[in-house]
């Protein structure tokens, strides 16, 4: 286990289609985070899980977005009815949780909606 | 509402020089301040982090200076090298609530180190 793994690395989809991304965290990490990064900006928090429980969702996460983490292992982020404004890099991070623990980021999934 | 402001947006430094990136935050509940380095096509990687109980932290060529009263912190890269060319992000979070990894990021500084 060498780090956080995200698939696919790139996704091009037509507007209106649904897409799903997968994140495999570092195996012993109980917290998993999703961030979105648009060109020239810093990552923005979307949601996070502690084990299988989704504890917080950002206002950025519209009803078209849904995230799951069944069994507290890998996580999926689904975007329904994609819009051009959804084009971004979607980053996943994991950590042990608790105080001051480092978040390890994956390489991200770059989504392009055409 | 941008809670962490970062400057400059871009920076060009000669090899061997000092790179300085500044950040200011608004939320006084923040108590964990990491800096991340990101190369093109990669995810951010933690470089160094500081808590407000110290005013400075040094790791190798990287130093964070922290001014709690001014709500500002900065990253200094000494003896900058071409391999340091990347985008740097400051960030902040509330580790006291157990959510140190729920980060608010700055907008990033693109550093280029020239020969």
Describe the structure.
The complex is a heterodimer of chains A (114) and B (115). Chain A is mostly beta strands and 114 residues long. Chain A contains no helices and eleven strands. In chain A, the strands form two sheets. In chain A, strands 2, 4, 5, 6, 9, 10 and 11 form a seven-stranded mixed beta sheet that branches. Chain A is globular, with a radius of gyration of 13 Å. The mean pLDDT of chain A is 93. With 115 residues, chain B is an all-beta fold. Helices cover 0% and strands 51% of the residues of chain B. In chain B, strand 6 (56-59) and strand 7 form a beta hairpin. Chain B is globular, with a radius of gyration of 14 Å. The N and C termini of chain B lie far apart (38 Å). The A-B interface holds A 4, 31, 33, 35, 40-45, 48, 56, 91, 93, 95, 97-108 and B 4, 6, 32, 34, 36, 41-46, 49, 51, 89, 91, 95-96, 98-108.
* Average pLDDT score of chain B: 93
- Which structural class do the helices and strands of chain B define? mainly beta
What structural category do the secondary elements of chain A indicate?
mainly beta
H/I helix tally of chain A: 0
| Proportion of helical residues of chain B | under 10%
* Helix-strand string of chain A: EEEEEEEEEEE
In total, the number of strands of chain A is: 11
Provide a brief overview of the structure.
The complex is a heterodimer of chains A (114) and B (115). Chain A has 114 residues and is mainly beta.
List the helices and strands and how they pair.
The complex is a heterodimer of chains A (about 110) and B (about 120).
Chain A: E1 5-7, E2 10-13, E3 19-24, E4 31-37, E5 44-50, E6 53-57, E7 65-68, E8 75-79, E9 88-95, E10 104-105, E11 109-113
Chain B: E1 4-7, E2 10-14, E3 19-25, E4 33-38, E5 45-50, E6 56-59, E7 62-67, E8 72-77, E9 86-92, E10 104-105, E11 109-114
Parallel strand pairs in B: 2-11
Antiparallel strand pairs in B: 1-3, 3-8, 4-5, 4-9, 6-7, 7-8, 9-10, 9-11
